[in-house]
Amino acid sequence: MSRPRFAPGDPVKVRRRDPPGHIRTPRYVRGKKGVIERLCGAFGNPEELAYNRAGEPVALYRVRFAQAELWPGDRGSAGDSVDVEIFEHWLEPA
Which of the residue ranges 8-17, 18-27, 71-80 has the most confident prediction, judged by mean pLDDT? Predict the structure, then answer.
């Protein structure tokens, strides 16, 4: 794995894509902004491994989203958040 692109505290945006196949990034976070909470490590790319192709290690991050970013109109506390683990190739700087 190359050096991780993001560090805790970095603002990121999840790419808005809808490729065919085995996807591990939930639709409800695509196109949304969050903050890197932590680097979880490097793992084989599950989108490649699902098809029995070599899955080179890819950085996996825990990204924290304000709940209101994911669900506009949310009536919860302003501090409510959702953490989702997302592979680096789905993220871009916000």
Answer: 8-17
Q: Which residue spans within the chain are E strands per DSSP?
A: 11-14, 33-44, 57-66, 81-87, 91-93
Query: Given CA atoms 14, 82, 11, 44 in this order, what sign does their dihedral have?
Result: negative
CATH topology of domain 11-93: SH3 type barrels. (2.30.30)
- Amino acid at the residue 28: Y
pLDDT in tens, 22-44: 788 999 999 999 999 999 999 99
pTM for this one? 0.91
CB 45 within 8 A of CB 25: no
